[in-house]
Write a structure and sequence with these properties.
By secondary structure, this protein is mainly β. The chain is built from 5 helices and 25 strands. A hairpin with a 4-residue loop joins strand 21 and strand 22.
Length: 503
């Protein structure tokens, strides 16, 4: 059966004929204390979630999940409702419809219509096949899993055929999904705590004498303005997605096969840059004719824009139990996945020379006339085919639960230096334990990037004071080179405290 992402609490009956309904929610507060005091702040955050589920008819079920947030990472935010077509949004206080859908329950067919989250894959934290929903990266280490997903408008149907013998595939089901329009991921703005250095234009780029063309002097380009700007994805039906999942159980092994053809739901950006020569403008203001020597000092304005692409993915997963262990495996082949280059490498002298040289005459003419001139740059994110696999093992013993998992990404036919390696391996270890009849729970998570040496560590202790009140304290540790996906945040270690009241 199709599942919901938020359980409801209170059950109540409406007048006869209106069916059975449930409602519930939570009120949560989060406070962050950075360990490095001169890093970007993150204000205290309040969250409110309200969910309502109803079944007005035997064959009809409806679900609504609303979330409101105030404070947190956004700077200079304004009140508003989140727009599923915009990548950069700094709303505070904000309101979002996380999910809103109707389920049609037929004899061997379930149909879900509306805004929804779709969970694919069996691994912990990183599922290579889970590509249908985009994610929000505005607080990427504390907001993860289903909470990080953005609901998408979709029609999802799951059929349970009766003619498949149980010895071949017990509980077999075929799921078909249609997403009518693309929905981009959500990303922090340039002045927020979790904006990554890897996509920020460097403050100074130096081009040695003659590096662009023989006879040209050395050039120093200073970035005086860096902003983020929205671009909406194509809003037309032929830009949507289709996806399918076939699953079942054979010889005590649960398995699934996946296919996705649609918009890239991962991150993708392009950098739009223009330059101006202030010395040339000064010369023109004095009535003089600027020369090549007036182009040694340029000022640049850069804007980070979303980039959209289309991908295909085929994948599979399985899970089975053996000798008290649960083993999970997952593999995905992705076509034209968008992968990041670091801004430092992307704007190096060699890369700029290759990109700018064909347009250099028109750029020089424009600068000598005192104009602001656009600079054509190569792709910031490049489309590459990838193979990603992962294997995880879970074991439970006397209230302890341990998870060990390895994920590996292979980038195929790649001539470009990326922010990750052509073979990129990640180890994940999770240890959980409950005490005092489940009132107290501890969790430790360690993730290690092997090739480039970046580390993420997360420890948290949770205390259920009552059935409705939960207290949590924890610490987030980030380490590694700035030229890695995790290490670029190594100044953002933090302690945090959460309190949640459920109703």
């Amino acid at each position: 059966m199709l599942a919901s992402s938020l359980a409801c609490g209170e059950t109540f009956e409406l007048p006869r004929g209106l069916g059975r309904w449930e409602a519930g929610g939570f009120l949560e507060g989060l406070a962050v204390l950075p360990s490095v005091h001169d890093t970007q702040r993150q204000r205290p955050e309040g969250r409110l979630g309200v969910a309502v589920r109803g079944q007005p008819r035997r064959w009809l079920r409806v679900f609504l999940d609303l979330r409101g947030i105030v404070g947190g990472p956004p700077e200079h935010g304004s009140p508003g409702l989140f727009d599923i077509s915009r990548t950069f949004q700094n709303l505070s206080p904000s309101l979002e419809v996380e999910e809103s859908y109707a389920d049609l329950l037929l004899s061997r067919l379930d149909v879900r219509i509306g805004k929804q989250k779709i969970a694919w894959g069996r691994l912990d934290t990183y599922q290579p096949t889970d590509v249908v929903n985009p994610h929000r990266y505005t607080d990427p280490f504390l907001v993860t899993g289903e909470d990080a997903k953005i609901g998408i408008p979709a029609v999802r149907a799951k059929w349970y055929p009766s003619f498949v013998p149980e010895r071949i595939a017990a509980e077999a089901g075929l799921e078909l999904i249609w997403v009518p329009v693309p929905v981009p991921p959500r990303f922090p703005l340039e002045d927020e705590r979790w904006f990554p250095e890897s996509v920020r234009a460097p403050p100074v780029v130096f081009l040695p004498k003659g590096s662009l063309r023989r006879g040209l002097p050395s050039v120093t380009v200073r970035t005086t303005s860096f902003t983020t700007s929205n671009r909406r994805p194509p809003q037309q039906l032929d830009e949507g997605a289709i996806a399918s999942r076939l699953d079942g159980r054979t010889f005590s092994t649960d398995w699934s096969l996946y296919f996705y053809d649609g918009p890239e739901t991962g991150l993708g950006f392009k950098l739009a840059t223009s330059v101006v020569a202030p010395d040339a403008r000064v010369a023109l203001g004095r009535g003089e004719k600027p020369g090549i020597g007036d182009l040694q000092h340029l000022r640049a304005a850069a804007s980070l824009l979303p980039r959209f692409g289309r991908i295909r993915m085929v994948g599979a997963d399985c899970a089975f139990a053996v000798a008290g262990y649960t083993v999970r495996g997952e593999v995905a082949y992705g076509m034209d996945r968008l992968l990041p280059r670091s801004a430092e490498e992307f704007l190096s002298a060699d890369v700029l020379r290759q990109a700018v040289r064909p347009h250099l005459p028109s750029i020089i003419v424009g600068l000598l006339k005192g104009r602001r001139v656009g600079v054509p740059l190569p792709d910031f994110f490049v489309a590459r085919d990838t193979v990603e696999w992962g294997v995880g093992v879970d074991y439970t013993y006397r209230g302890w639960m341990a998870i060990a998992q390895v994920n590996e990404l292979f980038v195929l036919n790649n001539p470009t230096e990326l922010l990750l390696n052509d073979v990129d391996s990640t180890l994940l270890f999770v240890l959980r334990k409950t005490f005092l009849s489940g009132r107290v729970g501890g969790e430790a998570v360690v993730m290690q990037e092997i090739e480039r040496g970046a580390t993420m560590g997360l420890g948290r202790l949770t205390y259920a004071a009552t059935d409705h009140l939960r207290l949590r304290i924890g610490y987030l540790l980030l380490a590694g080179s700035r030229r890695t996906l995790i290490g670029q945040f190594h100044d953002d270690d933090e302690a945090f405290f959460e309190v949640r009241y459920s109703f």
